[in-house]
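User: Before I run my own analysis I want an independent prediction to cross-check against. Here's the chain; please return only the structure tokens and, at the end, one sentence I can use as a sanity check.
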Amino acid sequence: MKIITVEEHYTVPEVDAYCAQAKAARSGNTPPQTPSHADAGVLGELGEKRLAAMDRSGITAQIIGYGGNSPMHLRKEEDAVTYCRIANDHLAQAVLQHPGRMYGYAVLPVDDPAAAAAELERCVKELGLVGWMIDGPADGEFLDHERFLPIFAKAAELDVPIYIHPGHPSAEVTERYYTGSWNAMTASNFSTFSIGWHYDTGIHLMRLILSGIFDKLPELKIIIGHWGETLPYFLRRMGGGLRPQITGLRHDMKYYFWNNVYTNPSGMFFEEDFDLCLKVLNPDHILWGQDYPFVPNTENAGSFLEQYPIDAELKEKIAHGNVERIFHLT
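Assistant: Structure tokens:
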């Protein structure tokens, strides 16, 4: 069965190093001497090793976005445009070398919205990239602020999906919510992949919805991972508390989730979560994702879906049909 995954990652060593230095200079700290993630070598590889890993997992193609010290977080004065262009050119070259097996998300210099919109247009029209990946809040700011709207408007104009990937909660949130009597490793995991950054990403999407972005741009498509970043569990609750009479939006919450929002497992191959999403979300908006190479031991990415007890037609949609439709893949 053809399987296309939508949350996969890469880095460029030159870009990663520059972003780490810029972040350190901003905070007054010394930049790390080693990469901040354990899989730097795997992340940076966009060739045969990645293809072999995909084959072992039963993955036909990946849609790949930046996954290290993202240049999205650079400020305008920190050469954000230059380093986003370097990253996008690097990914586009790999996509060109592996047609039908790799596709790419643009990374954008969001601190300069006009430049970001122009870079997205270049990435789609000239480089052949198929979407935009957001790496959490931009320098601590959620992207529902009006100044970021031109980037979303360009994505809607180009008809390319936007992926909101988790980013680290702010230092203030981390200190208040996730730091306690437990050890530092527990606090770190608590604030990030265990739950913290999933809450943060769910809040990011909800802020965008409540800002009216889908009323302004009704054709906009946004993807969130990890089975909806906790939001499907509260969809009916939010539907009652955030009715159009209260929010001033044109539609109820279910409408936006069924018409504009997409999700995938991001390597969380858990039956209960899959079952819930099939019950409360639009099945035409469920995609597949492995979160390569961050989630270990996911060589069952393909077999989990192939063996899942659902209708064969729906299984094909989730495996590749839905993603081919919204990303216009041929």
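Sanity check: Confidence is low (pLDDT under 50) at residues 33-38.
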